[in-house]
Design a protein that fits this description.
Length: about 450
Amino acid sequence: MMNNSRLLLWRFQRTTSKNTKRIVLEPTRVFSRVMTRVISRDFSTQTKQDILVLNAGSSSLKFNLFSVDMGSNSVSSVLNGAANGLTVTGDVDPVIKIKQGDKTLISDVISSPTHSAALSFIADTIRSHSSENISAVGHRIVHGGTVFPESCIVDDNALNELSHLNSLAPLHNPHNLAGIVAAAETFPGALQVGVFDTGYHATIPEHAHTYALPRRLANKYRKYGFHGTSHKYVVEQAAQFLGKERINAISFHLGNGCSVACIKNNKSIDTTMGYTPLAGLPMGSRSGDIDPSIIIKLLQDEGYTSEEVSDILHNQSGLYGISGSSDSLTVERGYKNGDPGYKLAFNVFAYNVKKFLGAYTAVLNNEVDCIIFTGGIGENSPLLHNLVCEGLHPVTHDNYSRDNQVSDISAAGSSTRVLVVKTNEELAIARECVKLMR
């Protein structure tokens, strides 16, 4: 519990340096708020609670307004939507879609491909179509470091700690913090809750999260892992589908950002992303794993600054670097049409996904209950499923449907089940909010 406190209101400024676009946090003014009243509020006095969830990805902003029955723990969506195409590459239009149940309320191009513009649009829509009586706002926060191993109520101290983690996830954490501050201003009576992508991977053993650096550096720089909220959710859904309490699984979260998680008895024991979300698979505009000597060469021989190298690795690489598009569906269409650049990009991506399937199968001593595909392209690309599983686990899409929560695409005789599971990070975050409200 806190005393009367002050929260910093951060101004987000977009700066440009030789095609480098980055978000910088700057304190501009301070506003007073009696946080004690919010944090100590007894939510049990009201059976029905409204929880807003904000999920800021590297190129998207999803939201979901949930109605929660605190008595029965039932959670139902009232209003939901997403803004996509929020990317500095500018190769796709920023589009926002908002639904109320099955009814589409809004489908439009927004004025700017920024998270702040999308958040402003969403807040206005909530005001005009639903209630402003929000009890809690749950925020997906990508990097919690070692400071935040589990979900927490965000007070001014937590906000300050989080601001120091922005350099670890520059494409994500600044947007996550912007959402917290904006939500605190828009819904001043609401509890602000942080749910961390890194939290689920806190169970990774030391030998798997330690880099082979000098010990003085390895103690500071280690693997954290990301997409934890998604991996945890789809593993729980897969276990329920298979009728098992605990499973061994290899979970592929494949969207604009991509990661693989190695799961033993429902717990993460390894993952492809590392100290930051830059490591692992090639992604929409991120390089994934490369030889570190290339970075030294770029700095020493090519004359790039460290900021320019960071921009190359975060914003100019991956699918975008190879093909000119960061959109996986565009790349897949180009692959099918025989375009050489798109075909190479898709093959590089699928090859690396398959490589980690083999590696994590070995880590689990070939005791794998299921393989899980989730995320934008993971849920929607039979072509990718086929390329990744070819020669290892026969698949069929006879019973596959994008409308299914879980689709079993395993072919007859496959010893390992191959599942396509729709992720729902927003629902998982709402459930974390309920836990902290009790």
